[in-house]
Description:
RNase H type-1 domain-containing protein
Amino acid sequence: MGSKNGKVWTKPGVLRDDSGHLIMAFSVATQCRSNNQAEAMPALYVIECCNRALDKTNTI
């Protein structure tokens, strides 16, 4: 959820493969200005995690 008063919200999420199997679950502390930003922050977190994994191993 967005926050207009400076509060930090925790956004939970899960990453699943194409069969629906759980790859990872996470919770991201965010401070957002809109509901759209609050929805996008977990997606950005997953993308960054995948990029770090690729940098370390060159595979997922």
